[in-house]
Amino acid sequence: MAQKCSFPSDQYAGQGDRCQNNAQLTTTFCREEFKEAMFSIQPDKCSGPDSFNPGFYQTLFVSIQL
């Protein structure tokens, strides 16, 4: 059965309800959501704490298992 993806929206913006915001931020995500987020970043942006920039992950995306 295919997993339904729901990219985070701003439906809770401005409501100030931390419980709802926390629930939205801690829900599981699917591979398509990860791919959309990863490829929306410029590949040459600065690296993260692991010293790899987005281009590294974009190039090796097919090898990444989620």
Automatic annotation (TrEMBL):
This is Uncharacterized protein. It comes from Medicago truncatula (Barrel medic).
